[in-house]
Structure formats: structure tokens, C-alpha cells
Amino acid sequence: MPKVLISDKMSPRAAEIFRERGIEVDEKTGLDKEELAAIIGDYDGLAVRSSTKATAKILEAATNLKVIGRAGIGIDNIDLAAATNHGVVVMNTPFGNSITTAEHAIAMLFALARQIPAADVSTQAGKWEKSRFMGVELAGKTLGVVGCGNIGSIVADRAQGLKMRVLAFDPYLSPERAQEIGVTKVELDDLLRRADFISLHTPLTDKTRNIIGERAFGLMKLGVRLINCARGGLVDEAALKVALDTGKVAGAALDVFATEPAKESPLFGHPNLVATPHLGASTSEAQVNVAIQVAEQMADFLLTGGVTNALNMPSMTAEEAPRLKPYMALARQIGGFAGQLTRSGIRAVSIEYEGHVAGLNTKPLTAVVLEGLLKPNLESVNMVNAPVIARERDIDVSEVLHEREGDYHTLIRLTVTTETQTRTVAGTLFANRAPRIVEVHGVPLEAELSDHMLYIINDDRPGFVGALGAALGKYDLNIATFNLGRSVKGGYAVALIAVDQPIEQEVLDAVAGLDYVQQVTHLSF
Ligand SMILES: NC(=O)C1=CN([C@@H]2O[C@H](COP(=O)(O)OP(=O)(O)OC[C@H]3O[C@@H](n4cnc5c(N)ncnc54)[C@H](O)[C@@H]3O)[C@@H](O)[C@H]2O)C=CC1
Ligand SMILES: O=C(O)C(=O)COP(=O)(O)O
């Protein structure tokens, strides 16, 4: 039974779903990094929010871990590259808390416009400072949305409901989408110059870190108001302090901080600062949404292999997973076949999907072909990291889909180009389940792959098969299956021979010494 650890506070629905689906679950929140490292090796899955830091060290210790589920959106607390290297799938719940977070940004907008938090403190202190808290109206003002994805576009929608004009800076926002959601797409500097309110909704990346710093404040209108419900590192907090002190920024509302938990900050205590402790996603509705989603997604993956919302692996629905399973076996064998024959650097890989398979989700199959191909020569390759490794090694990977059937109802053909040659191998599923190799090097043959196999290329000459049988008999090797094919009469022949025992080097040497043999390789599947 798979075992999951929930290491951040989450709606009880997550644990209930894991249990309902037959997954053992432990809930241990507030662990420090040593405590987490000490127990993580026991788990197949880890469910987190933003507190747990899934660092490279934790992943190193996570010897059984297969999946990390983020009940929320941002995954900056998870070392994605390290997870990928360890073959751990990382998934999030990209929509479960977006409305709630957008609503928090709108709440911040009002809080700033009408200074509600400070007015509340003053009023409850018995001061009745009516003239101190003069506000600004939102209608007719310009809101600049930086990052107009799921949350940014909901904020834009709500702001238009308040009769604000919305400018958006997002390099990936298409003009059509901008028009559809009623925002004006502008460059960042233009937005900074024109906006009365600015709300940030980008992920934290190398490009967005400190995107709002001294230079940006310099461009803004005097008396601008800034809202950050995305990630702390987007705003240079020291520069913000200066901008608040000088009055350039009339108010800033921060839900997120460069270091969290933010128990102290030079910004704290500033009369024009509104601060909340990373509450963007904290509504009961959003927390139930993300808990259900993350538990369902992780359970699907652990129980069926279905992959939804993964950030380091192609998606595969729970319905697709069983249909793809026999193809995964075939893809792994085809990749492994070519990989075991490959002796020099791989330049290009082309995978053709023909007939039935071309109508399926081929992305996971390509990942598995690459895993099979790279595994014989590299440590710790799996379907999660194989596409990344291929990219890092400048291997050009292409997929070709032929929906029409050829000689077979369904076929995967792999062509691998190395520094020295090009090799092809193709396979099908018999009765839609059992993998069979049906073509090697352009030569048709039909072979089931097994543990101990000889792959031989020889000149197509009479007497060769007899000589080979005699040589194997001499070493007491019992032939289980013998599959032969040839290019053309008198050309070259390919043999795939399964034997019952492990094949020693002296057998390979003896076969290599036979007349007409061009190549002999031991293959194992
Ligand atoms: N405060 C909180 O509790 C919560 C914070 N968040 C954070 O909100 C942020 C946005 O989340 P979503 O809208 O769901 O993400 P999303 O991926 O739907 O949208 C992000 C947008 O930012 C844009 N973007 C990327 N790089 C950019 C750049 N250099 N300049 C301008 N735009 C850029 C993307 O094109 C995309 O449209 C994330 O950082 C997420 O972690 C999300 C949920 C809760
Ligand atoms: O979903 C996100 O990106 C969030 O920032 C929410 O964080 P949380 O789950 O509330 O710790």
C-alpha cells in the first residue's frame, strides 16, 4: 500500500481521500528539515503547501518518493530540478485557489484606498480620527496588473466591475486574450508610469525577482499604491521602504515577503503599510478545493500512473494510464534495444507513431522511449528526467504521427542517429497487449524480448545458422526462441536469439569468431 506524508496544514479532506482510496497517510506538520529528512525515506508521496521546503537534501533522503503534491499554485518551496533528477513527479493545483487569491488582492485594494486597517485600529482605540483617514475612490482609476495569468485576469475582471481601467503587463498574454478579458496590454514601464494602483501576479523567477525595485519606483506616479499577493521576492523591500518614507508610494499592501514567516521587517509599523501573513489562499473554500485536488491527483498517480498538473512530466489521465500501460512496456523495450546497441554519442532521436498508437497521448511514451534509450549508459534515468537529460545533451528529439495503419494495426518506430550511424527498431503490440519487435535496421522479423538475448548481424550465407547452433550447443546454451530476418537475399541478416541462461563473454567471443558475423551483442530486457 503506498504511503503519503502530509507535512503542511491542509483541509482534512486530503487525508480522508487518501484513506478512502486505500493509501496510508501520516499528517506531521511543523517538522524541521532534519526531522523531515529522517522520515521522508518511508514515503511514496509528500503533500505540501508553502511551508515545507522540499530541498535537494530532502529529495536525496527521499529514497522511495515518487510524487510531491502542492496543494496550491507556487512551487518555489520545491526544488524542481532536484525532484526531476530523482525521478519525482511534482504536481500542483493550478486553479483551486485562484479566485480566493484574486479576492484577497481586491480586499487589499480597498484596504489601501480607504486605509481600513489603520482606521480600524484608531477607531477601536477610541480616537475617532475622521479627518485623518481621507480615502481615494477606485472608480475611474487605473489598475496595472503585472502578470495576467489565472489570478491576474480574475483581478482584472473584478477591477473592471469596480469601473477601473486595467492595464496589463505580461509578455505571454496574447492580444486576443487581452481583448477578451478587457485589458490593455502594455509594456512594464508604460504600466508603471500610468497606474494608480499596481497589483503583482507573476511567479517568482529569475526574470521577476525584484521586478519592483528602485528603477520601477522611479517611474511610478507620485502617490501610487502597490499590492503584492504573489511572491515576496518580486518587490525589493528596502526600495519599497524608501518609496513609502518619501511618499512616492502612498500605500503598500503585502501578503507575501522575501523571507517567510516574516516575523520582523523594517517595513513593519509604517503607517501606510497593510500586511497579511500569506493569506491569499486562505479561505475554507479554496483550502477544500486544493486539498481534494491534490489528494485525488496524487492518489491517481500512485495507484494508476495517471498524471495531472505535473510540472516535470507530460500529463496522462487516470483513464489513459491503463490504455498506455502496454505501450509503455513496448516503448521501454524499443528504447532499451537501441540504447544497448548504442556505443557513441546520440545526436538525434525520431519516434514515429503509426496506426492506433498515433491517436493516443504519445508524450509519456516518448519520455519512456528516451528512458529506455539512455538507461544502458547513464545512472538514474527515469521517464521524468529522461527528456531533460536528452535536452541537456543536445539530442534532437522529434515525434512523427501517422494516423493511418501500415503493415501493423499499431507501431512505434525509433530511429537513433549517433555520431557514427543511424539505427532503427520498431515494435507493435500483439492482441493489443504483448510487445513484439517487428523490425530491426529495416529488416522485418518478429521477436519477443527477454532476459538473455543475442543480437547478431551477419552476411546472409548458407550454413551460418547451423554453425551458430553448434557454437551455442558447445556452451550448453539452450535456445528458447530464434528469430531471423534479412535485408535482401545475399545481403545482411539479423538474428535475435533468446537463450535460457546468462550469456558469458566467451560465448560472445565464440560467436563473433564465426564466419560471416559482422556484429554480436548481448541484450537483456
Ligand atoms: N498569496 C498567496 O497565497 C498566493 C499566491 N499565488 C501566487 O500568485 C502568482 C500567480 O499565480 P497564477 O495566476 O495562478 O499563475 P499563472 O501562471 O496563471 O500566471 C502567471 C502569469 O505571469 C506571467 N509572467 C511570467 N513571467 C512574467 C514576467 N517576467 N513578467 C510579467 N508576467 C510574467 C505569465 O505569463 C502568466 O500569465 C504565483 O506566484 C503564485 O505562486 C498563488 C496563490 C496563492
Ligand atoms: O498557492 C500558492 O501559490 C500560495 O502561495 C498559497 O500558499 P499556502 O498554501 O497558503 O501556503
From TrEMBL:
<dbReference type="Pfam" id="PF02826">
    <property type="entry name" value="2-Hacid_dh_C"/>
</dbReference>
<feature type="domain" description="ACT">
    <location>
        <begin position="453"/>
        <end position="525"/>
    </location>
</feature>
<dbReference type="InterPro" id="IPR036291">
    <property type="entry name" value="NAD(P)-bd_dom_sf"/>
</dbReference>
<dbReference type="InterPro" id="IPR006236">
    <property type="entry name" value="PGDH"/>
</dbReference>
<dbReference type="InterPro" id="IPR006139">
    <property type="entry name" value="D-isomer_2_OHA_DH_cat_dom"/>
</dbReference>
<dbReference type="InterPro" id="IPR045865">
    <property type="entry name" value="ACT-like_dom_sf"/>
</dbReference>
<dbReference type="InterPro" id="IPR002912">
    <property type="entry name" value="ACT_dom"/>
</dbReference>
<dbReference type="GO" id="GO:0006564">
    <property type="term" value="P:L-serine biosynthetic process"/>
</dbReference>
<dbReference type="InterPro" id="IPR029009">
    <property type="entry name" value="ASB_dom_sf"/>
</dbReference>
<comment type="pathway">
    <text>Amino-acid biosynthesis; L-serine biosynthesis; L-serine from 3-phospho-D-glycerate: step 1/3.</text>
</comment>
<dbReference type="Pfam" id="PF00389">
    <property type="entry name" value="2-Hacid_dh"/>
</dbReference>
<dbReference type="InterPro" id="IPR045626">
    <property type="entry name" value="PGDH_ASB_dom"/>
</dbReference>
<dbReference type="InterPro" id="IPR029753">
    <property type="entry name" value="D-isomer_DH_CS"/>
</dbReference>
<protein>
    <recommendedName>
        <fullName>D-3-phosphoglycerate dehydrogenase</fullName>
        <ecNumber>1.1.1.95</ecNumber>
    </recommendedName>
</protein>
<keyword id="KW-0718">Serine biosynthesis</keyword>
<dbReference type="GO" id="GO:0004617">
    <property type="term" value="F:phosphoglycerate dehydrogenase activity"/>
</dbReference>
<keyword id="KW-0560">Oxidoreductase</keyword>
<dbReference type="InterPro" id="IPR006140">
    <property type="entry name" value="D-isomer_DH_NAD-bd"/>
</dbReference>
<dbReference type="InterPro" id="IPR029752">
    <property type="entry name" value="D-isomer_DH_CS1"/>
</dbReference>
<dbReference type="Pfam" id="PF19304">
    <property type="entry name" value="PGDH_inter"/>
</dbReference>
<keyword id="KW-0028">Amino-acid biosynthesis</keyword>
<comment type="similarity">
    <text>Belongs to the D-isomer specific 2-hydroxyacid dehydrogenase family.</text>
</comment>
<keyword id="KW-0520">NAD</keyword>
<comment type="function">
    <text>Catalyzes the reversible oxidation of 3-phospho-D-glycerate to 3-phosphonooxypyruvate, the first step of the phosphorylated L-serine biosynthesis pathway. Also catalyzes the reversible oxidation of 2-hydroxyglutarate to 2-oxoglutarate.</text>
</comment>
<dbReference type="GO" id="GO:0051287">
    <property type="term" value="F:NAD binding"/>
</dbReference>
